[in-house]
Amino acid sequence: MKFTYIQGTSIEQYNEIETGFIKHVVFDFDGTISLIRDGWQNVMVPMMIEFLQTETDTKESQEELESIVVEFVDRLTGKQTIYQMMQLAEEIEKRGGKPQDPLSYKDEYNNRLLPIVEKRISDLADGKITPDTLRVPNSFEFLKKLYEMDIQCYLASGTDVEFVKNEANLLGVSDFLNGGIYGALREYKKFSKEMVIQKILNDFNLSGNELLIIGDGYVEIQNAKAVNAIAVGVASVEDNIYNMNADKRERLIRVGADIIIDDFREGDELTRFLFNS
Ligand SMILES: [Mg+2]
């Protein structure tokens, strides 16, 4: 895909956009701001393979199951976690198994991820690591800058809202998110990133160029483009052993990202461009 660099930067621009009008910014959380849950795929994928092996009589090999699981986990990333678990239940059913409630798979996943998350949080509390190491580079500085510019910032995450609120606090970014922090709910039909975006558009009667969406998942980029909002894709590198980063950037571009960044190291240049400031 053709792009130009925003002058004097390594920020890639793929579409012409009308800059200078943005008043509201919706951020994704994991992989966009936070690295607290980095490596979650390394927990989710093996768990799903295990359930496929124990809850069905499948003759498929470990490798075959892995490639099936990796495909749908990757495809459903960005939506609420429950959708990945619903797909797992479907795969179990397809193989003649009798799946549990997807919510119990999700609970089990959260239980398995918890020690990793808690270790990072306690290392942070003990001063063994600094918040910087758990944030996408310069995301804190970028959020702070927008906050000081009086831009309304929001979080919308597919991770459970209680976790997101707690982790945003730990990373020191909660105060900048003056528009609110939204995340997955047990009643999953009551939340989606699309719903958050729609509510902001309605509440403030915005046109597309007044709203900016920033995320590393193609779901939020797709949601942004569906309402003509400006979309910045974050092609951040996540730690997973399944090579899911390989086409992350291409996918963000394919679904219509206007701009691609690796992280926020050129955040000042990005704000200057987007806000004509
Ligand atoms: Mg993300």
Any guess at the CATH architecture of the largest domain? 3-Layer(aba) Sandwich
Can you tell me the CATH topology of the largest domain?
Rossmann fold
- Total count of strands: 8
Largest sheet: 8 strands, mixed
Task: Name the CATH superfamily classification of the largest domain.
Answer: HAD superfamily/HAD-like
Structural class call reads alpha/beta
Notes on the protein architecture:
The protein is of the alpha/beta class and 277 residues long. The protein folds into two domains: 11-36 and 133-275, Rossmann fold, CATH 3.40.50.1000; 41-125, no CATH class. It has ten helices and eight strands. The chain has helices spanning 41-54, 62-75, 81-94, 102-125, 139-148, 161-170, 193-204, 218-226, 248-254, 267-275; strands spanning 4-5, 12-13, 24-27, 152-160, 180-184, 211-215, 230-234, 259-261. Strands 1-2-8-7-6-3-4-5 form an eight-stranded mixed β-sheet, with helices on both faces. Helix 8 (218-226) links the parallel strand 6 (211-215) and strand 7 (230-234). Helix 1 crosses helix 2 (62-75) and helix 3 (81-94) packs across helix 4 (102-125). The longest helix has 24 residues, at 102-125. 43% of the residues are buried. The model has no long low-confidence stretch (mean pLDDT 95).
